[in-house]
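Hi all, long-time lurker, first post. I run a small reading group and we've been trying to get comfortable going from sequence to structure in the token notation. Rather than ask abstract questions, I figured I'd post a concrete chain and ask someone more experienced to write out its structure so we can walk through it together at our next meeting. Sequence below, copied exactly:
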Amino acid sequence: SCLQAKLINELLVVFVCATTGQGDPPDNMKMFWRFLFRKNLPPNSLCQLDYAVLGLGDSSYPKFNFVAKKLHKRVLQLGGNPLLPVALGDDQHDLGPDAVIDPWLLALWDKILALYPLAPGLDIISPDVRLPPKYTLHYLAEDSVHPDGALLQLAAPRAVPSELHPFAARVVSNQRVTAESHFQDVRLIEFDVTGSGITFSAGDVVMIHPQNCPEDVQQFCQLLRLDPDRRFVLKPTEPGSFLPALLPQPCTIRHLVTHYLDISCVPRRSFFELLSYFATNELEREKLQEFSSALGQEELYSYCNRPRRTTLEVLWDFPHTTCAIPPDYLLDLIPRIRPRAFSIASSMLVRAQ
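-- Answer (accepted) --
Happy to help. Here is the structure in token form:
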């Protein structure tokens, strides 16, 4: 592949990799993994390469960060020059992977700047400078408001169902299988997938694309002083960048918040860092800066992760800042809704009548 051909000529590479299954590389790394472990690669193939490896793992698994460790050793074996020891981020740490990543990144930038000094006249961008948004949001004229339903893009007929082309399946039944008195609400939900072309075995997972409830969408729009019926088009700040695949163009604010922005997720540290730039209230700014600092991570964990506080709930807690968020930054601030995986309890070999 293009990546494999380029690697031989690269001078500096930072690898960021997860481990899946029983110590396996992620799907998008498998071709590269096979290439890297070819027996016929000369031992000095990467002798011109400075590199660093960051692993994202979970120490509750026996093969913790196996891919990062093995990748680090293999590149070293092929003549690469490691700038730092491999970093082993751990989801099980109270502060998450950041506990390892923070000090590692500081050391990495020092090494890189020593090897590749900035050109005269260039300075490191100060952390006080707010970077431009990835997209700009252009509102359309008020008189072109359409009902939101007209904008919903369902999968084209006969398209193979995928994350970008989900199949709209009818719910046939929804029954609770745990006792009413049990603390867990486990359900058996039956979908009609006739005509979808979906094939599966018992034990596979089905990816369900959730959406935010109307009450949460309404609260979000009120907090940010957004008109849910306003229509807009997105334009990338960097020419040639791709637009989000799942958003229709034009789109309403209601559709964006309902189907795209994950306002129910627990926000990450980067959320608080970006939010602090919009703070007009001194107390709110100080708190947001504390939450986004390395020293404030235990405080952030107690406030956000332990009680599983959602993005919407956090926005309630910082009302002065929330109403000052520029709409252009919404897609930088809040991640998109990801499909959720659920176990398939049926087999295609059994046909329910």
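A couple of things your group might point at:
Residues 98-115 form the longest helix (18 residues).
The domain at 1-115 is CATH 3.40.50.360 (Rossmann fold).
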